[in-house]
Amino acid sequence: MGITNSNKEVNVTQIDCGGSFKIKLSLTGEPDILSNPTDIVLILDRSGSMAGSPLANLKNGAKKFIDIIDEATDSNRDGQIGYGSRIGIVSFDGTATKDTELITSVADLNAAVNALSANGSTNHADAFTKALELFDPASTNAKVMVMFTDGKTTAGGDPNTVATAAKAQGVIIYVIGLSGNGGIDEQALKDWASDPDSAYVAITPDDEELEKIFEDLARNIAKPGATDIVITDKVNACFKVTAVSMPTKGTASLVDPTTVEWKIDELGVKSSEGAVLEFTVEHVGPCSGTVEVNESTTYDDAEDNKVTFPSPELTVDCGTDVFPEPCPEPVELTVSGCEDTVEFDAGDLSLESLGRIVQLDVTLRNVCPHKRVALAVLLNEVDACGCEHKRGLKTLTVPAHTRSGCHDVTVRCIKFVLPEDLDASGCACSICGTRKLKARFIANYIDNDFECCKATTKI
Length: 459
Prior knowledge:
The protein is an alpha/beta fold and about 450 residues long.
């Protein structure tokens, strides 16, 4: 069957600047269908929400799946599934129906798929029950269910109970979910599927993707397990890999600060088998906002399986910057020719003595959304005796941010002018002398929802 599923996940959706997160790579391999005959039940959702293009695309995907298995079992599409493998069709709305038994006729299977029509509610428990009844407990064939659904359970019992019982009997369960057609319970789909759920669950919001999902799954089921696997995962240059865990199968090593190489000798050659690798990544670059985690992921094996991994994104939160004071506008002038002296009128600039400019940044922690902050900055200079001399006071209004929760706000470039004639160090003869300063900050919310209690008089 080859590689039947591949996945890449991150354990968080948001980190702070310099924060860390984990990446998990998952693979599932299955044995060759020619040497391991397989009974497959397609469990197809035909509830009312499937009307229109979703049902049409589902039918195309299911028929493509059947054709690929037909060709894989006897090297051509002769209308009969060979080498002992069989396919059955179960469809469901408020109740489930065995549309076929486990059979080999492609024409009969396609006819059952073509006859599906959308109507009614969604009973997953009955669908799993009817599918499980198709399998012969005495058969040595591998047993696979492929459940497709576009909605949450709205009728019948608990489907997880039936799915768990099926898995206990050795049934492998794949789940395909269409999330853009009314909503699905993704956790429920993961509970129903075989473990690891990241390798046995495929979810798409677009019904046009269904045909390709069914096609990819059928092609991988038809291939042998994979050997000589090499996966090279390179993270975005904004990150670096800080730790690589021992994978559940094979070996993994750090090629360079951004690249992990995972090697597996064989996977799924004799039985269904999953493998997982986790590694820890740290944010080190200037990027912020929504960032794609990986630069590239490559896969190679001896069987030439075609494997792709999703490219997850996360939000890097580097705080909110506020610039309350603009930089001075420059005065433009041109020097040309061989003149030793250039005279230029720079306008009305009040320059009376030498001095320095002190520029301060401050971060206000956990500022609540939609609330302005009043910020005061007091700057004092300290003389050799430890006495403080006032050098400036600035009061600023920090605008409200609109993030969903409390958030750090950085106020940058608060400028104070320190004339040299006020130098308290005792040496005003040079601009290069050391001057000791103390800055104090006072902040409070401007906006609040406080209201005084209204006075009442009781008689």
